[in-house]
Design a protein that fits this description.
This protein has 254 residues and is mainly alpha-helical. The protein is 72% helix and 0% strand. The longest helix is centred in the last third of the chain and has 25 residues. The protein is extended and about 65 Å long.
Length: 254
Amino acid sequence: MQPSRKFEDLIELVSVLRKECPWDKKQTHYSIKDNLIEEAYEAIEALDNNDFDEFKKELGDLLLHVVFHSNIASETNTFDIGEVVYSLMEKLIRRHPHVFQNQTVSGEEEVAVNWENIKLKEGKKSTLDGLPAHLPALIKAQRMQEKAANVGFDWPEWKLAWEKLDEELGEFKETLEKNDINASSDEFGDVLFSMVNVARYFNLVAEDSLRQTNKKFEFRFRFIESELKKTGKSLNDASLEEMDQLWEKAKLIN
């Protein structure tokens, strides 16, 4: 078998692997479910690094999971890849009446409102339905806020959201001063949620911003370790002042 650009050849390849490879044959939906999350994050990392060759490969890995899970399901007549494709197309056509029917919209905001209304007509009990329980907290906070805003539950301007953030910071500080750990945890959550809300007004993606800061911290901290190692020192040997000086040096680089 040779690589090709045909989707049906990929389906056949996965089918062969399921029949002839001992490892692939043994897998179930549940044994590889965490790998699906891992591949999604690897794709995001490649995109964040502007490495489109790697991004292409990671998208391929995600596609493999779609085909692989569909193959497993087809073995018990649960569903097959054709049904996956049909279900997706049917949903996209139904939720885009402004494209495939005669509905007129004023712009993207109305499209978002219509999308949520259509989902409710499909049987969703809440505008917030459809968000996975285990979605990373920052992402879920922003998605919930976006969904609520789409149906009008939102501050009219960002300054009011900022005032709410100020209020939550004050409440958080009070609980810290009282050394009330349980209350502090709740208030800290409120602070984070409010910060995400402010960011949303400026089209900032909270998860992306924190990921970038994590990368920045990691680079600078590794720089400190590397520079100390050149002088024969470890972190334990260095003073805070020495590490701060190296940190400032790292900031000039990144």
